[in-house]
Amino acid sequence: MLQRIRAFFMQRGVLEVETPLLSSAGNTDPSIESIKASSDGYLHTSPEFPMKRLLAIGSSDIYQICKVFRQGEAGRYHNPEFTLLEWYRLGFDAPQLVDEVLELIRALAADAGMGLTDARLSYQSLFVTSLGIDPLSADENELARAADARGLHPGCNMPRDDWLDLLLSHCITPDFPPDRLTVITDYPASQAALARLNADGQTAARFEVYWGGVELANGYQELTDGAEQRRRVQQELAEREQRKLPTVPVDERFLQAVDAGLPDCAGVALGIDRLLMMLLGAEHIREVISFPADLA
Amino acid sequence: MATYSTNEFRGGMKILLDGDPYTILENEFVKPGKGQAFNRVKVRNLKNGKVLEKTFKSGETVEAADVIDTELQYLYTDGDFWYFMDPNTFEQIGAGAAAVEGAIKYLKEQDSCVVTLWNGEPLLVTPPNFVELLVTQCDPGIRGDTAQGATKPATVETGATIRVPLFVEEGDVLKIDTRTGEYVSRVNK
Q1: Considering Cα of A63, then A67, then A72, then A75, what sign does the dihedral take?
Q2: I want to staple B154 with a disulfide (CB 3.0 to 4.6 A). Which of A243, B23, B136, B164 is the partner?
Q3: Do the Cβ atoms of B36 and A158 come within 8 Å?
Q4: Chain B neighbors of A164, CB-CB under 8 A
Q5: At residue B81, what are phi and psi to the nearest 5 degrees?
Q6: What is the pLDDT of residues B133-151, one digit of tens each?
Q7: Which among A154-158, A264-268, B16-20, B116-120 has the top mean pLDDT?
Q8: Cα A87-A75-A20 angle, rounded to 5 deg
């Protein structure tokens, strides 16, 4: 599979790069916890920031296949250490990058003798069709009621975005047809700290690709406004404080790189272990990892 | 008061929900890559056996149920309660009909079994997976009826009635799987 992926990018003139796994900064995203490696820093949760630094100093299209680390994520589809394929395309918008993601997955599926259909649906249209609510305007109470009506009672107060995550992951994505690649497009702006906003001001150029009900890839048309990026990082730090999560050092070098000028581009990260699970029909991520975290 | 974080959830863990003790059967970690994590668990109510699904926000804590399994010896019944003894301390404890239901028909006096205690009170009695019991009543097999898989009812010394192969006779000792209530084999006397 890795050879096939490398051939795919070679053919398209996308350069393979490596960036440090160990970083002086952590991820400020409140829903992702970095693993502190030692006094030297944190294990990266994705290669996004250093790859964007490469783009800012003038690299061409780039991709990377690397291990990433996320604290406390273990389950049927999660292992705290997993393999990510991440790539950036200059001048691409989100729909163009979606085309390429689908092409890659389809090529690998075809090798395995599997045919897949696809569908592109906006985040808003999915909520409206499946649940009859507008995810852009509904407040916490309305979302909580929708969850309640479907037997979901997490028994605690949650911020709006957590209710959206609950409904999406429990009531919408599990119903995606198994042989379909479903692309969710135009996420609410509050759920896309690194993506460019769409013209409506309410949604962002963020997309996710699901194979059946399994989330495989997350992509953005990247935010290139340094001041706006800085504001969003500050917002994440404030949210971390509010949720009593550990504070992490901000990646100043990344922010400076965006200030200096990130070219117009789109980027995406795809979970290699999960893709392999789908290609092999594996039921648990353990089946595609030599030694999962509890045996590592 | 002990609590568990959802991060500690494991199959077999005993937790308290709405005042009732539950055991965790399955724990699934559900997390969108860029979103809030949840734990979707399947739990069984230890009082009535009902299984239900529950979703917790990851990182939340849940009260632990003071539920422990102890190996006790079945002594006797007075019709209202069934009495069990700890073979180490000789301490005796009486369990009500609800706790022994399903188990008692496989238990002889002196047999060991697992008694699940909640706050010190018997909640559930679980017989060993396999028990060996004497057949006290069964009809003779009908000669010539050799159809494969044919069975007949037999009653064993504890009162349970199970389906057995036609060759089983009164006085035989049978190995029985108490989880399914099925005949396993005849035991050589």
Answers
A1: positive
A2: B164
A3: yes
A4: 35
A5: -130, 155
A6: 999 988 886 665 556 678 8
A7: A264-268
A8: 35
Report the candidate in A76, A108, A4, A81 with the shortest Cα–Cα distance to residue A290.
A81
Kindly provide the ipTM of the predicted complex, given to two decimals. 0.88
Terminal CA-to-CA distance of chain A, rounded, Å?
23
**Torsion, CA A240, CA A242, CA A246, CA A249, rounded to 10:** 50
Residue B187 tokens read as 């035991």
Phi, psi of B86 (to 5 degrees): -80, 115
- The span from the first CA to the last CA of chain B, in angstroms, equals 52
Tokens 């002196």 -> residue: B110
> How many angstroms separate the CA atoms of A211 and A56, rounded?
32
Q: Which residue has the tokens 């992509």?
A: A219
Q: Give the pLDDT band of residue B48 (cuts 50, 70, 90).
A: confident
Beta bridge partners of B153: B163
- pLDDT at residue B68 greater than cutoff 90: no
Using an 8 Å CB-CB cutoff, list chain A residues near B33.
208, 215, 218, 269, 271
Q: Kindly determine whether residue A165 and residue B32, on different chains, have CB atoms separated by under 8 Å.
A: yes
- State the Cα torsion A222-A224-A230-A232 to the nearest 10°: -40
B56 residue type, one letter: F
- C-alpha span between B144 and B141 (Å, rounded): 9
Average pLDDT, chain B: 88
The H or E element spanning position B67 is strand B67-77
Chain B contact for A239, CB < 8 A?
no
Find residue B162's DSSP bridge partners: B154
Reading the block at residue A248, the tokens are 């992490």
Binary contact (A158, B57; C-beta < 8 A): yes
**Per-residue model confidence (pLDDT) at position B189:** 63
* pLDDT, mean of residues B29-54: 90
Eight-class DSSP state of A205:
S
pLDDT digits (tens, 9 = 90+) for A136-160: 999 999 999 999 999 888 877 888 9
SS3 percent helix, strand, coil of chain A, rounded to 5, is 40, 25, 35
List of chain A residues with pLDDT < 50 = none
Rounded Cα–Cα distance for residues A173 and A17 (Å): 33
Choose among B25, B168, B32: nearest CA to A174: B32
